[in-house]
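Handout, section B. The chain below has 115 residues.
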Amino acid sequence: MIFSGNVTTEPNPADEIDYRNLLEEERLLLQQKLTAGGGGVATGGQGTPDASKIASWRGEAKSPTVQAQEALGEVEGALRRLDDGTYGRCEGCGELVAPERLEALPATRNCVKCA
């Protein structure tokens, strides 16, 4: 509890985003994709890739498996930064990364300016 003049304020837990939970959920999803084989290919029910998934792959040089592996590495790196106290600091300029950016991209290492 913080006292400021006649006003008493308490930290509001709802204002804080549980980044660890977001990252652990993302890690679990990525691990499931990799375990499923082929990078977690979405299927249309008959074992064939979903048309929207195929369309999204066109023009991309990396396979979905490689993309999932790289994303998993980024998530695990973010979890390490949480453990060592550097999570939320831009690796480029050292400034704090905006909470909105961290919520949207919890594994990000950089602020918008340095991305």
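Note. The domain at 18-36+47-115 is CATH 1.20.120.910 (Four Helix Bundle (Hemerythrin (Met), subunit A)). Compare this with the example in section A.
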